[in-house]
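#lab-general

N.A. 3:47 PM
ok so I finally got the sequence cleaned up, no stray characters, all 111 residues accounted for. can someone with queue access submit it? mine expired

B.Y. 3:52 PM
send it over

N.A. 3:53 PM
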Amino acid sequence: MVFSVKEGGMLLANHSDLRGDLEVGSVFVTMTTSLLLLPPLAWLVSGNRLREPLSSLNDWLVHRAEWLVGVFALLLGLYLGWQGIEGLHRMVELGLRPLQWCKSPGIPTPA
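B.Y. 4:20 PM
back already:
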């Protein structure tokens, strides 16, 4: 989901026309659809030969789920932190203060 939001932001920032948006959108939909269809198609093509490797993979995942979730959360947090710092850096390069956009009444801004 994070990558989809980032790609959407990049599409909006590029100000491309409708044709460019449709091209990028169709590539995205094709890639995600193929990734979702790959496991069921592999199962159908291989018959029952995948049952043993998939059950051993399932057992491995069941015993190591906490570590995998922890590592994934750590990597995602590092990535999002890096993206935030990069965004603040770009705002400074453009001459904007990071909280300049929230000048509405009632929202305090730092000096």
